[in-house]
Amino acid sequence: MSDSPISTEKRGDILIVTSNNPPVNALGAGVRVGLDAALTQASADDGIKAVVLICAGQTFFAGADITEFGKPPVEPILTDLIPKIEAFDKPVIAAIHGTALGGGLETALGAHYRVAVPSAKLGVPEVKLGLLPGAGGTQRLPRVVGVKAALEMTAKGDPISATQAHKWGLVDELAEEGALLDTALALAEKVKAIRPIPRVSERTISPDDAAIEAFRKENARKFRGFDAPAANIACVEAATRLPFAEGIDFERTEFMKLMFGSQSAAQRHIFFAERKASKIDGIASDIALRPIAKVGVIGAGTMGGGITMNFLSAGIAVTIVEQAEEALNRGVGVIRKNYEASAAKGRLTTEQVEKAMGLLTPSLSLDDLSDCDLIIEAIFENMDVKKEVFGKLDAIAKPGAILASNTSYLNVDEIAASTSRPQDVLGMHFFSPANVMKLLEVVRGANTADDVLATVMALAKKIKKVAVVAGVCHGFIGNRMLMPRQVEANKLLMEGATPEQIDRVHVEFGMPMGPFQMSDLAGVDIGWHRDPTRIESIRDALCAEDRWGQKKGAGFYDYDEKRNPTPSPRVAEIIEDFRSRSNMPKREISDQEIIERTLYTMVNEGAMILEEGMAQRASDVDVVWIYGYGWPVYRGGPMFWAGLEGTPKIVEGLKKHGFTISPLLAEKAEKNEGF
Ligand code: 3H9
Question: In this structure, are strands 425-430 and 402-405 parallel, antiparallel, or unpaired?
Fold first, then answer.
C-alpha cells in the first residue's frame, strides 16, 4: 500500500500511524482504508501495546471529505471506523496539530486519549455546511465537555483553542509546539497498561433542560431560517436522555435528513464557491505577484477609514490622506475608537490596538503616497473628481504601484484612461462597513495587467476578504442586480403593495432586511437631486420632507429613539397621493408577485451578467450576494436558488409580468436545469 496516505512505524511497542493527505487531511476513502488496515496490523501484533494517531502536513484531520458527499459510500465508512477505534483493545492516542474539525474531532473523540499543541483548534463546524457531526460527535462531545459547551460547539460551529479544550477536558495533555509526537509517545508509554481503557461512549451525562431551553431562546434570532442548528441541539438533547447506542441512531436519522435537504446542498455549494471565487480563469496560479508592503488610502470618511482598518489589522502599513486637517483627525479618531471598542469587548488587546495604530500615517498631501505599493481611492462617487485624483496619482505613484478605485458604479476603464498606466489600475469595491463586510468586488478593467489582478486577489485573502472578480459594467455584480429589485419594489408600491409587505416578504425569504428597510438604513437621500421642489417620485417626496431614513428618525418607516420602526401613516399618504395623481388603480398584490418581480428579476440580471462575461461563474454571483448583501446562505445565493426554485418556473413568472428574459436563463429553463 505504498500510495496509501497512511503510513505506520513501530517505535518500541508503540505503533505510530501517520496520515498524509494534503491539503487538509480530509478523511477520504484512502485515509479510512489505511486507518482500518493500521488497526488490523496493531491488533495482530502482540508486540504493539498502544497506537499513536498523528497527521503530517499543516493539520490533523479537518473533517470528512466533503467532495464525497452525495456519492455512493465507500467502505469503511467513518461511522463504522470510529466505533472500531473506540472499541480497540489497546489504547489509541490522537495527537492533534492545526485543526481537528468535524469528522477529525470525532475521530479524536473515538480515540482514548487526546494530546494537542496549544496552537491547535478543535471544533465541529458541520452546522456551517447545514449538517451536524454525524459520526458520533453529537453524542460523544457532550459526554466530555458538558451540555452547554457542546451546544455552543455543535450549533454554532466555531472552533475552540486547544488551551480551552484542555480546560474542558477535551484534550488530556498539551504538548509544546514541535514536541507533539514525543508527548504523545510519552503518554502512550504511561497509559499502555491501564485498564479499563477509557471510552467516551461509556461516560454518563445528566439532562440539563434549563440550559438547552436557554440556549434555544438566546440564539433564536441567529438561527432564524436554518434547519441545522435545531437538529444539532436536538441531538445534544438526545445525548442527555438516551443510552449511547440509541443516541447514535437518533443522530444518524437527523444527519440523513439534513444531508439530503436543500439547505445543506446550498451551504456546501457556498463552501466550495467561496474557495473557487479566488481563482482567476486564464491566469496561472503561480504568476509572480507584486509585493505589497505599504498601502495608501485617499479619503478618511466612513469607507476610507474602514478600508484602512483592514490593512492595519493585517499588519500592513497605511498612509491615509485627506484634504482638510479636521476631516483627517476625525477619520483617524474613528479608526481608533473602533479599535478601542473591539478591545473593550475583549476581541483585541491594548497592545494589538497600539500596534495597528502605530502602522498608520495620517497625511494632508497626496505626495506622501509616493512610496506606496497600492493606493486605494475612496472619495465620493463623481467621475470628474476621480479622474482628477488619478491624474495626480499618475505623477506621484512609483512605477509598478497598483492604483485602485473603491467606486461602486463608475466605469473603471474611464478612470484608468486618466493615467498613463491603465495596466496598473483596477476597482476594489469594498462593502460598508468596510472593516466588517467580507465581500470585495475586484473590478478588472480592459487593460488591467494579470499580475495586478492576481496580486489584489491574493491580498484580499490576507485581509480576510472573500474576493470576486467582476467586469466593468454599471454597478458591477452586486449593485447591478440590486437595481431591478429596487425599480420593481418602487413600482409595486404604486400598484398597491406597502413597504411593510415588500420588506416582510424579503425577511421571510431570509434576507436580513427588505429593500425599504435597507434604504432607510443606508439613507433615502443617497443619490437624491437635492431639490425639494422637484418631486417626481415617492423617494423625492420623502426626501423633500426630510424623511432621509434612520438618521433623521423617519424614512419609509417612522422610528422611535431606539430606532425601532413602525409603519408610517404619512408615507401611506404620500404613496396614495402619487398613485391617484398617476391614475394607477390600486390592487391587491400577492406575496408571490413580490417574489417574482423583486427576486426572479435578480436571477434574470445575474444571468445577463454571466452572458456578458461580467462574472467568471454563477457561483461567484452567489458569493457576492451571500457576503455582500446577506442573502440567506441556506438558499445558496440567487443563482443556486434559481435551480432550487426551478428555472422554468422563474421564466414563466418573469414572462407573466412582461420582462425580457436573458437568453442564458431561457436556455437553462429549456433544459430544466440550474446554473
Ligand atoms: C464532516 O466532517 C461530516 C462528519 O461529521 C460526518 C460524516 C459521517 N473536504 O479552506 P482552504 C479543501 S463535514 C474536502 O482554502 P485553509 C478546500 O476545498 C466536514 N476538501 O484552506 C480547498 O481546496 P482547493 C467538517 C476540503 O488553510 C483546500 O482544501 N469539516 C475540506 O484556509 C484548502 O482549503 C469542515 O467543515 C474537506 N473537509 O483552511 C472543515 N476542507 O485548494 C472545512 C478543505 O481545491 N475546512 N478542503 O480550493 C475548513 O474549514 C478549512 O479548509 C481549514 C483550512 C480550516 C481546514
Answer: parallel
